[in-house]
Amino acid sequence: MSEERPLPLSTVAPPIVASPAKRIDALTGDPNFMTSLARGLAVVHAFQERKRQLTIAQISHRTEIPRAAVRRCLHTLIKLGYATTDGRTYSLLPKVLTLGHAYVSSTPLAVTAQPILDRLSEHVHEACSMATLEGDEILYIARSAIPQRLISVDLSVGSRLPAYCTSMGRILLAGLDDLALDDYLERAELHVKTSRTVHTVDGLRASIGHVREQGWVLVDQELEIGLRSIAVPLKDAAGQVLAALNVGTHVSRVSSQELESRYLPILLQASRELSTRLYS
Predict the structure, then answer these.
(1) In terms of domains, do 15 and 45 share one?
(2) CA 158, CA 130: separation in Å to the nearest integer?
(3) What pLDDT does 108 receive?
(4) DSSP result, 44-95
(5) Residue 241's pLDDT is what?
(6) Where is the IclR-ED domain (predicted)?
(7) Mapping DSSP to helix (H, G, I), strand (E, B) and coil, where does residue 280 land?
(8) Whole-number mean pLDDT of the chain?
(9) What is the mean pLDDT of residues 123-139?
Protein backbone atom coordinates (compact mmCIF):
# COMPACT_ATOMS: atom_id res chain seq x y z
CA MET A 1 0.00 0.00 0.00
CA SER A 2 1.24 3.48 -0.82
CA GLU A 3 -0.48 5.16 2.11
CA GLU A 4 1.84 5.94 5.00
CA ARG A 5 1.21 4.26 8.33
CA PRO A 6 0.47 6.59 11.26
CA LEU A 7 3.55 7.27 13.37
CA PRO A 8 3.53 6.48 17.10
CA LEU A 9 2.19 9.36 19.16
CA SER A 10 5.62 9.92 20.73
CA THR A 11 7.10 10.85 17.34
CA VAL A 12 4.27 13.05 16.08
CA ALA A 13 4.57 16.79 16.65
CA PRO A 14 1.73 18.20 18.74
CA PRO A 15 -0.94 20.14 16.85
CA ILE A 16 -0.87 23.88 17.34
CA VAL A 17 -3.85 25.75 18.75
CA ALA A 18 -6.37 26.96 16.10
CA SER A 19 -4.82 24.83 13.39
CA PRO A 20 -3.94 26.34 9.99
CA ALA A 21 -6.37 23.94 8.35
CA LYS A 22 -9.28 25.33 10.36
CA ARG A 23 -8.29 28.91 9.59
CA ILE A 24 -7.95 28.06 5.90
CA ASP A 25 -11.31 26.25 5.81
CA ALA A 26 -12.97 29.32 7.30
CA LEU A 27 -11.81 31.38 4.31
CA THR A 28 -12.57 28.97 1.48
CA GLY A 29 -15.88 30.70 0.75
CA ASP A 30 -13.94 33.71 -0.54
CA PRO A 31 -13.66 33.30 -4.35
CA ASN A 32 -10.35 35.19 -4.37
CA PHE A 33 -8.77 33.11 -1.60
CA MET A 34 -6.05 30.68 -2.81
CA THR A 35 -6.31 27.58 -0.64
CA SER A 36 -3.21 26.00 -2.18
CA LEU A 37 -1.07 29.06 -1.38
CA ALA A 38 -2.37 29.18 2.18
CA ARG A 39 -1.58 25.51 2.64
CA GLY A 40 1.93 25.98 1.27
CA LEU A 41 2.62 28.79 3.75
CA ALA A 42 1.22 26.68 6.59
CA VAL A 43 3.60 23.85 5.65
CA VAL A 44 6.57 26.25 5.74
CA HIS A 45 5.51 27.54 9.18
CA ALA A 46 5.27 23.99 10.52
CA PHE A 47 9.07 23.82 10.73
CA GLN A 48 10.58 25.16 13.96
CA GLU A 49 13.99 25.43 15.63
CA ARG A 50 13.52 22.09 17.42
CA LYS A 51 11.68 20.49 14.49
CA ARG A 52 13.87 21.27 11.51
CA GLN A 53 13.24 17.87 9.94
CA LEU A 54 9.67 16.61 9.67
CA THR A 55 7.84 13.77 7.94
CA ILE A 56 4.67 14.25 5.92
CA ALA A 57 2.73 12.64 8.77
CA GLN A 58 4.18 15.05 11.33
CA ILE A 59 3.42 18.12 9.20
CA SER A 60 -0.10 16.88 8.55
CA HIS A 61 -0.67 16.32 12.27
CA ARG A 62 0.77 19.72 13.18
CA THR A 63 -1.26 21.66 10.60
CA GLU A 64 -4.26 19.31 10.22
CA ILE A 65 -3.84 19.59 6.45
CA PRO A 66 -4.44 16.26 4.62
CA ARG A 67 -1.29 14.28 3.88
CA ALA A 68 -1.91 14.32 0.13
CA ALA A 69 -2.02 18.13 0.17
CA VAL A 70 1.08 18.32 2.38
CA ARG A 71 2.90 16.02 -0.06
CA ARG A 72 2.01 18.31 -3.00
CA CYS A 73 3.12 21.40 -1.09
CA LEU A 74 6.47 19.82 -0.24
CA HIS A 75 6.94 18.63 -3.83
CA THR A 76 6.37 22.21 -5.02
CA LEU A 77 8.73 23.68 -2.42
CA ILE A 78 11.43 21.20 -3.45
CA LYS A 79 11.00 21.99 -7.15
CA LEU A 80 11.32 25.71 -6.40
CA GLY A 81 14.42 25.25 -4.23
CA TYR A 82 12.84 26.05 -0.87
CA ALA A 83 12.99 22.56 0.66
CA THR A 84 14.80 19.25 0.44
CA THR A 85 14.23 15.63 1.49
CA ASP A 86 16.24 12.55 2.36
CA GLY A 87 13.39 10.35 1.19
CA ARG A 88 11.60 10.26 4.54
CA THR A 89 11.98 13.62 6.29
CA TYR A 90 11.81 17.10 4.84
CA SER A 91 13.64 20.30 5.78
CA LEU A 92 13.74 23.88 4.57
CA LEU A 93 16.61 25.36 2.57
CA PRO A 94 18.16 28.83 3.06
CA LYS A 95 16.27 30.15 0.03
CA VAL A 96 13.23 30.41 2.30
CA LEU A 97 14.89 33.45 3.91
CA THR A 98 14.44 35.37 0.65
CA LEU A 99 10.69 35.37 1.27
CA GLY A 100 11.15 37.75 4.17
CA HIS A 101 14.40 39.45 3.22
CA ALA A 102 12.78 41.77 0.67
CA TYR A 103 10.41 43.02 3.36
CA VAL A 104 12.82 43.50 6.25
CA SER A 105 15.47 45.08 4.04
CA SER A 106 13.06 47.62 2.55
CA THR A 107 11.07 48.80 5.59
CA PRO A 108 11.76 52.37 6.73
CA LEU A 109 12.90 51.06 10.11
CA ALA A 110 15.54 48.72 8.68
CA VAL A 111 16.67 51.15 5.99
CA THR A 112 17.02 54.01 8.48
CA ALA A 113 18.76 51.84 11.07
CA GLN A 114 21.37 50.26 8.81
CA PRO A 115 23.77 53.23 8.46
CA ILE A 116 23.49 53.91 12.19
CA LEU A 117 24.33 50.29 13.00
CA ASP A 118 27.19 50.35 10.50
CA ARG A 119 28.67 53.44 12.15
CA LEU A 120 28.13 51.99 15.62
CA SER A 121 29.78 48.70 14.68
CA GLU A 122 32.74 50.53 13.16
CA HIS A 123 33.14 52.56 16.33
CA VAL A 124 33.02 49.70 18.84
CA HIS A 125 34.49 47.03 16.53
CA GLU A 126 31.75 44.57 17.46
CA ALA A 127 28.55 43.24 15.87
CA CYS A 128 25.51 45.50 16.26
CA SER A 129 21.95 44.41 15.53
CA MET A 130 18.31 45.40 15.64
CA ALA A 131 15.38 43.04 16.13
CA THR A 132 11.63 42.99 16.64
CA LEU A 133 9.44 40.49 18.47
CA GLU A 134 7.86 37.85 16.25
CA GLY A 135 5.78 35.43 18.29
CA ASP A 136 8.05 33.99 21.00
CA GLU A 137 11.23 34.80 19.08
CA ILE A 138 13.22 37.84 18.06
CA LEU A 139 13.56 38.53 14.34
CA TYR A 140 16.73 40.26 13.14
CA ILE A 141 15.74 43.07 10.78
CA ALA A 142 19.11 44.86 10.54
CA ARG A 143 22.67 43.87 11.43
CA SER A 144 26.22 45.10 11.00
CA ALA A 145 29.08 42.75 11.81
CA ILE A 146 32.87 43.07 11.76
CA PRO A 147 34.28 40.22 9.60
CA GLN A 148 37.15 39.45 11.97
CA ARG A 149 34.74 39.28 14.93
CA LEU A 150 32.94 36.11 13.90
CA ILE A 151 31.32 34.06 16.67
CA SER A 152 29.81 30.60 16.53
CA VAL A 153 26.23 31.93 16.42
CA ASP A 154 25.80 32.69 12.72
CA LEU A 155 23.34 35.59 12.48
CA SER A 156 22.01 37.69 9.63
CA VAL A 157 18.89 39.61 8.65
CA GLY A 158 16.00 37.17 8.96
CA SER A 159 17.60 35.11 11.72
CA ARG A 160 15.49 34.19 14.73
CA LEU A 161 16.46 33.46 18.33
CA PRO A 162 14.47 32.73 21.49
CA ALA A 163 13.34 35.90 23.21
CA TYR A 164 13.81 34.75 26.82
CA CYS A 165 17.59 34.20 26.75
CA THR A 166 18.73 37.06 24.50
CA SER A 167 19.36 40.69 25.36
CA MET A 168 17.11 42.08 22.62
CA GLY A 169 14.45 39.56 23.59
CA ARG A 170 14.48 40.76 27.20
CA ILE A 171 14.07 44.36 26.01
CA LEU A 172 11.15 43.42 23.77
CA LEU A 173 9.47 41.31 26.43
CA ALA A 174 9.84 44.17 28.89
CA GLY A 175 8.01 46.37 26.39
CA LEU A 176 4.90 44.16 26.46
CA ASP A 177 1.95 45.11 28.62
CA ASP A 178 1.33 42.95 31.68
CA LEU A 179 -1.39 40.83 30.02
CA ALA A 180 0.73 40.07 26.96
CA LEU A 181 3.73 39.27 29.16
CA ASP A 182 1.63 36.91 31.29
CA ASP A 183 0.46 35.13 28.13
CA TYR A 184 4.06 34.76 26.97
CA LEU A 185 5.30 33.42 30.31
CA GLU A 186 2.42 30.94 30.42
CA ARG A 187 3.21 29.39 27.01
CA ALA A 188 6.97 29.91 26.62
CA GLU A 189 9.26 26.90 26.64
CA LEU A 190 12.23 28.00 28.73
CA HIS A 191 14.99 25.59 27.82
CA VAL A 192 18.40 25.58 29.50
CA LYS A 193 20.90 26.78 26.91
CA THR A 194 23.86 27.14 29.29
CA SER A 195 24.45 26.93 33.04
CA ARG A 196 23.71 30.69 33.15
CA THR A 197 20.34 30.62 31.39
CA VAL A 198 17.42 32.08 33.30
CA HIS A 199 14.91 29.30 32.65
CA THR A 200 12.19 29.65 35.29
CA VAL A 201 9.09 31.80 34.99
CA ASP A 202 9.78 33.57 38.30
CA GLY A 203 13.40 34.20 37.37
CA LEU A 204 12.49 35.55 33.95
CA ARG A 205 9.72 37.73 35.33
CA ALA A 206 12.15 39.23 37.86
CA SER A 207 14.72 39.90 35.14
CA ILE A 208 12.13 41.58 32.92
CA GLY A 209 10.99 43.70 35.85
CA HIS A 210 14.58 44.85 36.32
CA VAL A 211 14.81 45.71 32.61
CA ARG A 212 11.69 47.83 32.90
CA GLU A 213 13.22 49.74 35.81
CA GLN A 214 16.66 50.46 34.35
CA GLY A 215 15.74 50.67 30.66
CA TRP A 216 18.47 48.38 29.32
CA VAL A 217 19.80 44.88 29.86
CA LEU A 218 23.05 42.93 29.79
CA VAL A 219 22.73 39.19 29.10
CA ASP A 220 25.86 37.25 29.97
CA GLN A 221 26.33 33.84 28.31
CA GLU A 222 22.71 32.73 28.63
CA LEU A 223 22.31 31.80 24.96
CA GLU A 224 25.82 30.45 24.48
CA ILE A 225 28.95 30.27 26.62
CA GLY A 226 31.32 33.03 25.56
CA LEU A 227 28.62 35.28 24.11
CA ARG A 228 27.80 38.47 25.99
CA SER A 229 25.53 41.29 24.79
CA ILE A 230 23.90 44.51 25.90
CA ALA A 231 20.65 45.91 24.50
CA VAL A 232 18.46 49.01 24.66
CA PRO A 233 14.94 49.75 23.37
CA LEU A 234 13.95 51.77 20.34
CA LYS A 235 10.70 53.57 21.12
CA ASP A 236 8.11 55.09 18.83
CA ALA A 237 6.61 58.56 19.18
CA ALA A 238 4.15 57.30 21.80
CA GLY A 239 6.91 55.79 23.93
CA GLN A 240 6.10 52.19 23.04
CA VAL A 241 8.96 49.76 22.42
CA LEU A 242 9.19 49.28 18.67
CA ALA A 243 12.44 47.29 18.42
CA ALA A 244 15.66 46.57 20.28
CA LEU A 245 19.28 47.38 19.47
CA ASN A 246 22.27 45.52 20.83
CA VAL A 247 26.02 45.10 20.78
CA GLY A 248 27.25 41.53 20.97
CA THR A 249 30.76 40.46 21.88
CA HIS A 250 32.88 37.60 23.13
CA VAL A 251 33.71 37.48 26.83
CA SER A 252 37.42 37.31 26.06
CA ARG A 253 37.30 40.73 24.40
CA VAL A 254 34.95 42.87 26.47
CA SER A 255 34.07 42.64 30.16
CA SER A 256 30.58 43.24 31.53
CA GLN A 257 31.85 46.41 33.18
CA GLU A 258 33.17 47.78 29.89
CA LEU A 259 29.92 46.97 28.11
CA GLU A 260 28.05 49.02 30.68
CA SER A 261 30.49 51.90 31.11
CA ARG A 262 31.70 52.36 27.52
CA TYR A 263 29.25 50.68 25.13
CA LEU A 264 25.91 51.42 26.80
CA PRO A 265 26.11 55.24 26.40
CA ILE A 266 26.99 54.83 22.71
CA LEU A 267 24.15 52.38 22.19
CA LEU A 268 21.65 54.68 23.92
CA GLN A 269 22.79 57.55 21.73
CA ALA A 270 22.29 55.42 18.61
CA SER A 271 18.77 54.58 19.75
CA ARG A 272 17.94 58.24 20.34
CA GLU A 273 19.34 59.19 16.93
CA LEU A 274 17.32 56.51 15.18
CA SER A 275 14.14 57.52 17.01
CA THR A 276 14.69 61.14 16.02
CA ARG A 277 15.18 60.23 12.35
CA LEU A 278 12.04 58.11 12.32
CA TYR A 279 9.65 60.33 14.23
CA SER A 280 10.87 63.95 14.10
Answers:
(1) yes
(2) 11
(3) 82
(4) HHT-BTTBSSB-HHHHHHHH---HHHHHHHHHHHHHTTSEEESSS-EEE-GG
(5) 94
(6) 95-280
(7) coil
(8) 87
(9) 91
